[in-house]
Write a structure and sequence with these properties.
Protein name: FAD-dependent monooxygenase
CATH architecture of the domain at 6-49 and 66-71 and 108-175 and 278-361: 3-Layer(bba) Sandwich
GO molecular function, one term: monooxygenase activity
Strand content: 25-35%
CATH topology of the domain at 6-49 and 66-71 and 108-175 and 278-361: FAD/NAD(P)-binding domain
Number of helices: 13
Keywords: Monooxygenase, Oxidoreductase
InterPro entries: FAD-bd, FAD-dep_Monooxygenase_BioMet, FAD/NAD-bd_sf
Domain FAD-binding: 7-168, 286-344
Shape: globular
Length: 394
C-alpha cells in the first residue's frame, strides 16, 4: 500500500472501525477521529441481524469467529401476520452451510466491542473533525480544538449526518428522505424458550401501519423493534402516556408473545428512531481526490433488509483492498465507487419498497400483501433476496 502510508478515518461506528482495522493490518498508520468522548457512548444501541455476507467480509479481517461468539446463530426467518398466521418461513441453516458463514442476531454494542478492541489505540475519542483541505500530495483534517492532522487519505464514516459529506459537497446535497415511520427499539429481560425460541427471527406484518420484529439474543434477553407508520404515530398521546404504555396500547390485540414482550420492557430501554435514507444520486459521488465516504455517510438505507451494518462492513473491506491495489489514491477511490455503487443503490431501493408496504393501512391492501407473501415469499421472494444479498462485491 505504497500510495497510503497514513490514513484518517472520521467516525468510530461499524464502517469506520472496520476500515481502520483493515488499514492497520495492511501496515497503514491510522487515526480514527470520534467526536464522542465517553467510551460507553460508543457501545450503545439495540440488537440487529448480521447476515452471511457481513460475516464473509469480516472473515477478510479474521474477525468473523469473534463476532460469531458474541451473537446467536439465526436458523429461521419467520414471517407472520398480526393474527398469528405464518406467511413464510425461511430455513437459513442450509444457506449458512452453502456460503460457509452463519446469519447472526446480536447486540450492536457486541459488534462495536469486537471492532474497538481490534482497532486499539487508533481510536481517539473526543476529537471532532469540522473540515478538511486537500492538495495533490495529501489531505489535512481540521479539528474542533484548532489542531490539524495530515494524511494521504481521509475517510468519512461519520454517519447519516456526515460532516465530511457536507464539506465535500460544499453544503449542496439532496436532503435526507424520511421514510414515514418510526422504529421503537429495545432489549428486554425475558427468559424462556417457550416465550421466544432461540434461533428464529420473527417478522410480523400488521394492518393499520404496524409491524413488529423480535428475536432472542441470549437465554435472558430479547430484542424487539416496533415499526409504526406516521398515520398511526400521529395518534399517540405522548404527553399523557409513557413509551411503554403507548406501545402496549398500539399492539394490545396482537398475538402472544408481543404483548408479553412489551410488558416486560423497562420504559427507559425503549428508544424511538425516525427512519431516513438517501435516494440513490448519480449526480453526486462518494469521493473526490483523496477524500471518500462510506457506510451511512455515503448511502444510508432503511432497516428493512437488515443490511446497513453489513454494507458498511463490505465498504471498509473493499476500500482497504482497493487502496492497496492502486498506486494513486484518487484512482482507488474511483474504483471503490464503481465497485460498490450498483449494489448499495439496489439495496437502498429494495429496502425502501419493503418499508412502504408496512405503511399500508387499508384492510384490502394488507390482505393482498399477506396473500402475496404466503404465495411467493418461501420461493421466489427468498431466492431473489439471497441473490441480492450474496452478490458480494468486496
Amino acid at each position: 500500500m505504497a500510495a497510503v502510508r497514513k490514513a484518517i478515518v472520521v467516525g468510530a461506528g461499524i464502517g469506520g472501525l472496520t476500515t481502520a482495522v483493515g488499514l492497520r493490518r495492511a501496515g497503514v498508520e491510522t487515526v480514527v477521529l470520534e467526536r464522542r468522548s465517553a467510551p460507553g457512548r460508543l457501545l450503545t444501541g439495540g440488537g440487529f441481524m448480521l447476515w452471511h455476507n457481513a460475516l464473509l467480509a469480516l472473515r477478510e479481517l479474521k474477525l468473523d469467529e469473534r463476532v460469531a461468539e458474541a451473537g446467536v446463530e439465526i436458523v429461521y426467518h419467520e414471517f407472520r401476520s398480526d393474527r398469528g398466521r405464518r406467511l413464510a418461513r425461511w430455513d437459513i441453516a442450509p444457506e449458512a452451510e452453502r456460503y460457509g458463514a452463519p446469519a447472526l442476531g446480536l447486540r450492536r454494542s457486541a459488534l462495536n466491542t469486537v471492532l474497538m478492541d481490534a482497532a486499539g489505540d487508533d481510536v481517539l475519542l473526543g476529537r471532532r473533525c469540522v473540515g478538511f483541505e486537500q492538495d495533490p500530495d495529501g489531505v489535512t483534517a481540521r479539528l474542533e480544538d484548532g489542531s490539524e492532522l495530515r494524511a494521504d487519505v481521509l475517510i468519512g464514516a461519520d454517519g447519516v449526518r456526515s460532516t465530511v459529506r457536507d464539506v465535500l459537497r460544499k453544503g449542496h446535497d439532496l436532503p435526507l428522505r424520511y421514510a414515514g415511520y418510526t422504529a421503537w427499539q429495545a432489549i428486554t429481560r425475558l427468559p424462556g424458550e417457550d416465550v421466544v425460541p432461540t434461533g428464529t427471527f420473527f417478522n410480523l406484518w400488521g394492518r393499520g401501519g404496524l409491524r413488529f420484529l423480535y428475536m432472542r439474543l441470549n437465554p435472558e434477553e430479547v430484542y424487539w423493534d416496533a415499526i409504526t407508520a406516521d398515520s398511526v404515530g400521529a395518534s399517540f398521546d405522548m404527553l399523557a402516556k409513557d413509551r411503554r404504555e403507548v406501545m402496549a396500547e398500539a399492539y394490545r390485540d396482537w398475538p402472544d408473545p408481543v404483548p408479553r414482550i412489551l410488558a416486560s420492557t423497562e420504559e427507559d430501554a425503549i428508544l424511538p428512531i425516525d427512519i431516513f435514507d438517501r435516494p440513490p444520486d448519480r449526480g453526486g459521488g462518494w469521493g473526490k481526490g483523496r477524500v471518500v465516504l462510506l457506510g451511512d455517510a455515503a448511502h444510508p438505507m432503511t432497516l428493512n433488509l437488515s443490511q446497513g451494518a453489513g454494507q458498511a462492513i463490505e465498504d471498509g473491506v473493499a476500500l482497504v483492498r482497493l487502496l492497496s491495489e492502486h498506486e494513486r489514491v484518487p484512482a482507488a477511490i474511483a474504483a471503490f465507487e464503481d465497485l460498490r455503487r450498483e449494489r448499495v443503490d439496489g439495496m437502498t431501493g429494495t429496502a425502501w419498497s419493503i418499508g412502504a408496504m408496512g405503511r399500508w393501512r387499508s384492510r384490502a391492501l394488507c390482505a393482498g400483501r399477506d396473500l402475496f407473501m404466503r404465495a411467493f415469499f418461501d420461493g421466489k421472494g427468498r431466492r431473489e433476496s439471497y441473490a441480492q444479498m450474496m452478490d458480494v462485491r468486496f
